[in-house]
Structures are given as structure tokens and as C-alpha cells.
Amino acid sequence: MGQPRVVIIGAGFGGLACAKKLAGQPVDVLLLDANNYHLFTPLLYQVASSLLNPSDIARPVRSIFGGTQNVRFRQAHVTGIDFDRKRVRTAKGIDVDYDYLVVAAGSTTNFFGIEGVEERALGLKDLSEALELRNHILRCLEAASLMTPEEAEPWLTFVVVGGGPTGVEYAGALSELIHGVLPDEYPELAGHPIRVVLVEALPQVLPPFPEDLGREAHTKLERRGITVLTGLRVSAVTPEEVELSDGSTIRSHTLVWAAGVRPNDLAGAIDVSRSRSGRVEVDAYLRVPSVPGVFAIGDIASFVQDGKEVPMLSAPAMQEGRSVAENILRSIAGLPLKPFHYRDKGSMATIGKNAAVAQLGPLHLKGFIGWVTWLIVHLYYIIGFRNRLAVLLGWGWNYVRSDRPVRIITRARERGAGPPAGRPLVTARGQGRGRGAEP
Ligand SMILES: Cc1cc2nc3c(=O)[nH]c(=O)nc-3n(C[C@H](O)[C@H](O)[C@H](O)COP(=O)(O)OP(=O)(O)OC[C@H]3O[C@@H](n4cnc5c(N)ncnc54)[C@H](O)[C@@H]3O)c2cc1C
Known about the structure:
Layout: E1 5-9, H1 13-22, E2 28-33, E3 37-39, H2 44-48, H3 54-57, E4 58-60, H4 61-64, E5 71-75, E6 78-82, E7 87-90, E8 95-97, E9 100-103, E10 107-109, H5 117-120, E11 122-123, H6 127-144, H7 149-152, E12 157-161, H8 165-185, E13 195-200, H9 211-223, E14 226-230, E15 234-237, E16 241-244, E17 249-251, E18 254-257, E19 261-263, H10 266-269, E20 280-281, E21 294-296, E22 301-302, E23 304-305, E24 308-309, H11 314-332, E25 347-352, E26 355-360, E27 363-365, H12 367-381, H13 385-401
Parallel strand pairs: 1-2, 1-9, 2-5, 9-21, 11-18, 12-13, 12-18, 13-14, 20-22
Antiparallel strand pairs: 3-4, 6-7, 7-8, 10-19, 15-16, 16-17, 23-24, 25-26, 26-27
Helix pairs in contact: 1-11
Bound molecules: flavin-adenine dinucleotide.
């Protein structure tokens, strides 16, 4: 009899941590992902704001496990799981059998069913969305450069929805791109009003952070020319404008949606119990109750600690991945499983050059110190020396030259060369498109 087969669905933060811990152990691991790469999402906004290249923040999964005998990778979009037969179904009908299964398929953008948003907003959840957003912003500038200030207004008004870390970081980066770099290169836009507006439904930006850090971020954003609107929701979107909950409207052709995520659709496609937030319910060992051999981790899993679901963040996903790997090995060895405990090491967000906020236990860091801490932590967690070096080089270049160099408009022919016209707000969700080839 061969070694126990462990199938992991998803090579994101959770799945990868699990596979790494199982590398070299007496198990046969098969890692499945719809994409052939692991994506470092915390820096996705830097791709969308022309600072980094996609390959700086993504690494082919096969290259991560190149020399490892017992971990294999297959690019596959999982469509379902047959728990009775212990079999995973993939999009092109190739089934994979398992003894242990780890579901780590992450999350997807949540549009909350708001009128027009799903069709018109630009997301920031995967690489294809980040590239589409980058292209869109650059094309707006090109389009506006041919117009009068009055005509150009909606092209030069960029609305970012969601004042969490992703929205704050993107708004800051977009402002740096627009105000710092482009005036030199777009003399035609001199005198044109250019606006970045950040909309947050709650009374403060960075709601999960302590109040003082939220206030700090708010002030820093405003100092960088960003209009911050708190306590307001987007109620509808048309091709011409964004409507807010107080009845006001903003003329804009750009709505960046960073307002939240929901569990991956796979959670709804399998027959398991789910929490109110739609995440797959798990027990103290991250097992899916009543389904032998199946674990769920990361954004898709609802692990409750101290009466609350642990947040959808990379740290819990990685810790859960390592814990499940350990418990699979313990189960094979006939040892009792260890319950999972999430250790919250803190959270951080950057507003731009020399400005970030970080909460590390009792420490609240701001300004330059917060920013350096943010840089070091992110650099540490990027996978692969080449990626680390490329990111460091990109940051160094930007720090010294205030330059966001990746300002090429790719795929322009696909959407029609020349300025976007007619239906300006483009859909960039691309959840399906970005998944790449399937077996
Ligand atoms: C823009 C952005 C910025 C973020 N910044 C931070 C941050 O600064 N700090 C932080 O802690 N967290 C951050 N997060 C959250 C963090 O990315 C997630 O919490 C984390 O990725 C969850 O890990 P996971 O393993 O559950 O899912 P993921 O890392 O999302 O991995 C899921 C994997 O499953 C694959 N997959 C999905 N469906 C299928 C399927 N049907 N078949 C096969 N494969 C599938 C996906 O391709 C993906 O590779 C950010 C998220 C985003 C979108």
C-alpha cells in the first residue's frame, strides 16, 4: 500500500503553508490550484498602481516544490467534492482521490448585491483584476488628456470603496501615482481637477484597527490630497456616476471595489454546514464535522475563537495550514490531534511613502517607523529570493525617484485601442478568467 494521499485545494497562504509542512513527510501530497502560481495578495495593490510587475508578487507553484519528492502540483479548477467516495472533481472531469483533504480555496469579492456594482466595479482580488485596474487608470489619463477640464472630470475622479487596509493602501498608492508622477508627463492635464475619493461605510477608516491608528490614517490620506468620506455607502452605480447613501453623486468612470470578501463559491458547492458568513464550519482541529478526513482552512473556513470567527487574513490561514499538516501526520501516526489556537501578531497598513500604521500587540506604530516595520514584514513574507529582490528594487527606485515605472497599458487591443469610450466603467472581476487553464 502506498503512502496516505493528501489533496490540498488551493495554493494560497493556507494551502501552501500546509504543503510546505508536509514536504519530506511520509505522505503523498497533491496540491491543486486554478492558477499555476502562488499570489502574494498584500502587494497586489502595488501592481494595480504601476509600482510592481505581476511576476514580482507571484511565484509558480511548481518552482516552489521543484526538488520535493512527495509534493506534486496540478493546475485544476475544483468544482466539487464527493465525500462518500473521497474524491475531488475538477472542471474538465478529471477526478482525484484522497485519504485526507484540505480545503483552502480562499475567498472572492463581495459586492453585497448593490445595483450596478458587480457589472461596473473594478475589483482588486487577483492578478488579472490588478492588471485591468492598472490599465483602466492609465487609459483614463490618456482619455482625459484629449478633453477639456469639464469633460475630463469623470475620467479624472477615482472612487475607491472600502476603507479597510486594501482600500486605504490603494487610495494612497493611486494618489502617489497620479499626483507624484504624472504631472510631468501629462502637461495637457495641468489645471484639470484630479480627485481620489475613498468611501467607507463605518465612521472611521481601518475599522479593525485601534481608533488612534484609524485617525492617523485618515489624516495622512487627506494630507495626500485624498477626499475621505466616512459613514457613507455606495447605493448604486451607473456608467456615469456613483450614488452614495446620503443621495449625493460623484461623476466618475472609475469605481474600485475593496469593500469586502465572501467565502469562495466552493463553500456553497459542497454539502457541509456553513456559518452565517457562509464560511465552512470547522471544529477545534479545523476538521469539517461529519466528513471524515476533511479539513478546511483560511478564508473559506469558519474557525471560532473567543466567540468570534478568526479574520480573513493571511496569518490565520498560514497558522491553520501548519496546524492541519501537523494533525494529519499525528492522525497517521495514531496520536491524538492538537486543537488549533490562533495567535494574532497584529496588523498593519501603509498609506504611502514614509507613512504606515501598525498594531503589534500593545505597540501602536505610526509614520516612518510604522512604514519601515511594514516594509520589513512584507519583504520577509514574500516567497522566493528573486521576488524579494525585485520588490526591494521596485521600492528603492520609487523611494529615490518617486517613480512608479510600470506604466504600460497592456491588452489595449483587447478592449479597443485609444481612449475608452461609450461604456466607461469596465468589469474587471475576472474571477473565472484569471483562473487560467483547467485540466
Ligand atoms: C488585495 C488584498 C490585499 C490583502 N492584504 C492582506 C494583508 O496585507 N495582510 C493579510 O494578512 N491579509 C491580506 N489579505 C487577505 C489574504 O490575502 C487572505 O486572507 C489569504 O490569502 C487567505 O488565504 P487562503 O489560503 O484562505 O486563500 P488564498 O490565499 O486566497 O488562496 C486560495 C487559493 O485557492 C485557489 N482556488 C480558489 N478556488 C479554487 C477552485 N475552485 N479550484 C482550485 N483552486 C481554487 C485560488 O486560485 C488561490 O490560489 C489581502 C487580500 C487581498 C485580496
